[in-house]
């Protein structure tokens, strides 16, 4: 057993509390105890490391396809580890690997490749974003790969993961969707609705089947209309639903993001939707076998018909959301950690006893009326500082 050590910080923001100063006791990579002020008597004699800045929980990203030139869909175990490492050094200590639509055999092979990394904690799970998506709202997904859900296929894919598949995105209007959603939920897999042309009635029904997440709200679905609210409208008012939002400055306008924030407090989870070009310069890349061109940091299909993921990390989204009117660091923590952890049932997470010691140290600078800005200065994952 490792010796217990104390991390003391100028400020600790958990998402529920803000302590100035605060402390965290860590042993064997997990948080034993934490609190405001100075450590209590039984902890005060331990060696303490002082951290300058604001400590928050590590970011939790439940939707990312790649980074550093690598895509989870084509990655071997080493390159998948590199993707996770890239995101971790930028504060994402819990990362779900998203797989774009692909042939069944390819998806199964990717799941088997990634499964050991889920089992050893490098990844927080696997997300199948397809192939059970609507051709009308496919975005960057290859139309030739799309299909209606099959119980036999989904059982095969989930079985290949042996518990590693944590979430599956499905268009609920497709034939066979209800039975598939119900089976997945009954087997402990979170179901997200996305890349769908469904109407509001179908969305309501699907949430009744057990679906509980919306894949990147506003993108890959009918737009909100006052007489036909669609999935967007239903998700914004259904308190059971966690809503993903890509906040990279391109996928969603500021006002639309603010509508989601005000409509779904504590249910909004920022995601990166990062693709292989993340951490690279402009150039030509792929996602799910589709050619992508990145110009000025914006990833588009090579034919210019659709955005193709983002080239940002969750740290970028965290910094961007701090500029929203009235935003606090506590709310930003809930957007980048708490809601996502709850959505895929990660268990104890954040800054609390029993949780893994995943921490981000921020240099937070107050600016003018435009809000705050934050820079990730240090990252702890599983009780060890990275870098």
Structural commentary:
This protein is of the alpha/beta class. It folds into two domains: 89 residues, Roll (Urease, subunit C, domain 1), CATH 2.30.40; 285 residues, TIM Barrel, CATH 3.20.20. It contains ten helices and 21 strands. The strands form four sheets. Strands 1, 2, 3, 4, 5, 19, 20 and 21 form an eight-stranded mixed beta sheet that branches. An eight-stranded parallel beta sheet has the order 6-9-10-11-12-13-14-15. The chain has a three-stranded antiparallel beta sheet with strand order 16-17-18, with no helix packed on it. Helix 3 packs parallel to helix 4, helix 6 packs across helix 7 and helix 9 packs across helix 10. It comes from Lacisediminihabitans profunda. It is an enzyme of class 3 (hydrolase). GO terms for molecular function: metal ion binding; N-acetylglucosamine-6-phosphate deacetylase activity. Belongs to the metallo-dependent hydrolases superfamily. NagA family. Keywords: Carbohydrate metabolism, Hydrolase, Metal-binding.
Short description:
Belongs to the metallo-dependent hydrolases superfamily. NagA family. The protein has 387 residues and is α/β, with parallel strands linked by helices.
* Topology-level CATH name of the largest domain: TIM Barrel
Average per-residue pLDDT, rounded, comes to: 94
Note the gap between the termini: 24 Å
> Which structural class best describes the helix and strand composition?
alpha/beta
Strand percentage: 25-35%
What count of structural domains?
Answer: 2
Helix count equals 10
Name the overall outline.
globular
**Largest sheet, strands/sense/barrel:** 8 strands, mixed
Q: What is the name of the CATH superfamily of the largest domain?
A: Metal-dependent hydrolases
The top level CATH class name of the largest domain? Alpha Beta
Helix content: 25-40%
Oligomer: single chain
CATH architecture of the largest domain: Alpha-Beta Barrel
Low-confidence stretches: none
User: Over all CA atoms, what is the radius of gyration?
Assistant: 20 Å
DSSP summary, beta strand count: 21
Organism: Lacisediminihabitans profunda
EC number: 3.5.1.25
Protein name: N-acetylglucosamine-6-phosphate deacetylase
Family: Belongs to the metallo-dependent hydrolases superfamily. NagA family.
